[in-house]
Design a protein that fits this description.
Length: about 200
């Protein structure tokens, strides 16, 4: 229904030319029934544009990540931030900066409303009202990218790294729950994510 199998082509129509001029090249893409993404890379820096139409994630929407390092899981979960997180560091009143979940509570409210009646929660990031507006939404993301991430695009990473560090300092490594010999569950931090938190905080 959402035509996410065409997401790569639509993304390239919008992002490829302006990013190529800055040394970025398309490196990977993915699409499933309810999600899709396209990644562009310049050395260690990467940009991932994505769409999500899964009903548990609120209304259909698109978004963009800015990363440095591997774009494979789990490292990318620690080495990237959203564009709105970067925008908030310089222009907190901008439309781009007002995007994002804002709090875990909004995510919880979206989850509850997905299984019970109630007014829809405003979508995260960039609303995707219908398949016909996908290109328009991507053009809006591209405009915000060049307006709020000019330094990142040019290879100046100080502001980006500061925002990433703050985000990671405020989060815990992944938790592992496992039973002990008596069957009582204990909790410990996943060592790989603990190391990623250390590296990127």
């Amino acid at each position: 229904m959402w035509g996410l199998d065409r997401f790569t082509a639509r993304s390239d129509e919008v992002f490829a030319r302006p990013l190529v001029g800055l040394g970025f090249a398309a490196t990977s893409d993915s699409h499933e029934e309810d999600s899709a993404s396209r990644t562009y890379r310049a050395g260690e820096r990467y940009i991932r544009v994505w769409a999500n139409t899964h009903f548990l994630d609120g209304a259909p929407h698109c978004g963009i990540y800015l990363g440095e390092g591997s774009d494979d899981w789990p490292e990318w979960d620690w080495n990237c931030i959203t564009l709105w997180q970067l925008a908030r560091t310089a222009d907190p009143g901008s439309d781009a900066a007002r995007r994002g979940w804002g709090s875990a509570l909004k995510w919880f409210e979206t989850l509850v409303r997905a299984v019970s009646p109630g007014p829809p929660t405003p979508p995260v990031d960039y609303p995707l009202a219908s398949p016909s507006v996908l290109r328009t939404v991507l053009e809006g993301i591209c405009t915000d990218l060049f307006a709020h991430a000019e330094d990142f695009l040019a290879g100046s990473l100080e502001r980006y790294r500061s925002a990433r560090s703050k985000m990671n300092r405020d989060r815990e490594p992944y938790k592992i729950y496992e039973p002990d010999a008596s069957g009582k569950y204990t909790v410990r931090y996943d060592p790989e994510s603990a190391e990623l938190k250390r590296r990127f905080s």
